[in-house]
């Protein structure tokens, strides 16, 4: 039990590492939470610090999700619910990072990394959905919501209601919840598009 709890806490701490915040700061943005959307994520880094910084932040956020799950699989072999819980914990860490006063991002990239390890086929279904939506609408938020939802649905279809699928559904629900203000702006026609620059936060 202690090992299981330790693995989940470790996954949360890995998820809490604020790579987007750190990459933006290295590129001269003192606090990415004070510019653009105020979100600690790759999209806001892209807008405020450029494409290279955004790509680096995205890669690091994906990697920390994958690392959290890979470590859980190694430290708790034979217990499928522990890596599944670690995936959710890593996303929670990104969304509510202890290192930034629980004010983090929306968990999309970290969730993709985590479930790319747990259920790679579902991740391969979700990624084109995200890319197609973003390419056609320039709305990263809409792509994120539909990508996360498709990953959860695909995981349920491929695996049934096992621990990984339950974790995927819970993670997708958290991601959708974190995007509720974006969805309201999409409906109102005021959502910021991907190519918008990130000035001071209003």
Q: What is the gist of this entry?
A:
With 202 residues, this protein is mainly alpha-helical. Helices cover 72% and strands 0% of the residues. It is built from ten helices and no strands.
SSE inventory with pairings:
Elements: H1 2-16, H2 19-26, H3 42-49, H4 51-75, H5 81-95, H6 108-118, H7 120-137, H8 140-159, H9 163-178, H10 180-188
Shape verdict: globular
Give a short account of the largest sheet.
none
What's the helical proportion of residues? over 70%
Radius of gyration: 16 Å
Helix count?
10
Strand runs, count: 0
Q: What structural category characterises the helix and strand content?
A: mainly alpha
- How far apart the termini lie comes to 46 Å
Oligomer state of the chains in this structure: single chain
> Into which percentage range does the β-strand content fall?
under 5%
* Low-pLDDT runs: none
The string of secondary-structure elements, in order, is HHHHHHHHHH
**pLDDT averaged over residues:** 91
């Amino acid at each position: 039990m202690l090992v299981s709890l330790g693995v989940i806490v470790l996954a949360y701490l890995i998820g809490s590492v604020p790579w987007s915040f750190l990459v933006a700061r290295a590129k001269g943005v003192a606090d990415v939470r004070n510019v653009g959307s105020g979100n600690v994520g790759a999209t806001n880094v892209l807008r405020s610090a450029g494409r290279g910084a955004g790509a680096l932040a995205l890669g690091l956020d994906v990697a920390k999700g994958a690392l959290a799950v890979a470590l859980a699989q190694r430290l708790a072999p034979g217990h499928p619910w522990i890596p599944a819980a670690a995936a959710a914990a890593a996303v929670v860490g990104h969304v509510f990072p202890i290192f930034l006063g629980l004010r983090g991002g929306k968990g999309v990239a970290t969730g993709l990394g985590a479930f790319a390890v747990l259920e790679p086929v579902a991740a391969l279904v979700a990624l084109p959905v995200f890319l197609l939506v973003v390419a056609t609408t320039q709305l990263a938020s809409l792509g994120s919501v539909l990508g996360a939802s498709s990953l959860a649905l695909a995981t349920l279809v491929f695996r049934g209601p096992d621990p990984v699928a339950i974790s995927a559904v819970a993670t997708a629900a958290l991601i959708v919840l974190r995007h509720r203000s974006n969805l309201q702006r999409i409906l109102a026609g005021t959502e910021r598009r991907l190519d918008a620059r990130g000035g001071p936060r209003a």
